[in-house]
């Protein structure tokens, strides 16, 4: 990590919003230091009761044991955030507005916000942090993003992983990096908040494309070309929507893309694989029982794409056509393979 700035923000209690595998993994990481307290809000009252009794998530990463002295589950979201110094968002982007619907700007006042969401607000076509800043009047310097490359399942197994903490405030990012650094987690500080978010959104779309390719029977050679072309597509998008100096080969960008497009734990790749094998979108979603962020993200990115006449995004276009225009995956990929270099 870079040299620690002076006067780091003081964060003792974090309100975690969301009850999935990534929320569970992040709670495990934050409580490794033995100092950070977690107020954990879950939508399902039965899950709250189960966690209070058995100290584990009944639905996801059930092997992770929670420290009862540090982790308190809540049914009331207002009560969870009231005494927290920071709010960590770990709900799929498509459901974040409903999850936060009972909260107001007053509930966010004076609190840091951490987004671990790898998607966009579908009805707004905006990044999660942009929505939080505008809707809840949170200052830009009090917002941070947790980037990869990292899978929740490997966190549960305590396999070596890397996280990137992005914020326009290096002090805030450094404070989070220090809180999350432990035996199996390495952390890096980066200032490119929106760039990390856009890349996280795009890598899920690319992972769906890679899954479709695998389901259709395309091999490793094709996937290598697909992924390398996707980096060019991401670069072209970022040049239009958020042009700043960045190194896209860094772990927060390329690393996160690679782990999502190749890993067995990638739900977006799994979703795409099912589509390539002939599942309908609805059938794939029902069988997975988990949200593939890329399904919602590709619609938002496609709509952003149409605003720029000269922006070439063939992979995004192909995934959008398959998922939303119901074009045959095999036919669309015949077109796509001619667009790749």
UniProtKB/TrEMBL annotation:
Residues binding sn-glycerol 3-phosphate, per UniProt: 118, 148, 203, 256, 266-268
Domain (Glycerol-3-phosphate dehydrogenase NAD-dependent N-terminal) ranges: 14-171
Biological pathway: Membrane lipid metabolism; glycerophospholipid metabolism
The keyword NADP belongs to this UniProt entry's keyword annotation: yes
Stored SUPFAM superfamilies: 6-phosphogluconate dehydrogenase C-terminal domain-like (SSF48179), NAD(P)-binding Rossmann-fold domains (SSF51735)
Compartment(s): Cytoplasm
Enzymatic class: oxidoreductase
Primary localisation category: cytoplasm
Keywords assigned: Cytoplasm, Lipid biosynthesis, Lipid metabolism, NAD, NADP, Nucleotide-binding, Oxidoreductase, Phospholipid biosynthesis, Phospholipid metabolism
Glycerol-3-phosphate dehydrogenase NAD-dependent C-terminal domain residues: 192-331
Residues that coordinate or bind NADPH: 21-22, 43, 60, 118, 152, 267, 291, 293
Pfam families given in the database record: NAD_Gly3P_dh_C (PF07479), NAD_Gly3P_dh_N (PF01210)
InterPro entries with a match to the protein in the record: 6-PGluconate_DH-like_C_sf, 6PGD_dom2, G3P_DH_NAD-dep, G3P_DH_NAD-dep_C, G3P_DH_NAD-dep_N, NAD(P)-bd_dom_sf
EC number: 1.1.1.94
Superkingdom field: Bacteria
Family statement drawn from the similarity comment of this UniProt entry: Belongs to the NAD-dependent glycerol-3-phosphate dehydrogenase family.
Family matches, as HAMAP family: NAD_Glyc3P_dehydrog
Name used for this protein in its record: Glycerol-3-phosphate dehydrogenase [NAD(P)+]
Species in which this protein is naturally found: Algivirga pacifica
High-level lineage: Bacteria, Pseudomonadati, Bacteroidota, Cytophagia, Cytophagales
Gene name per UniProt: gpsA
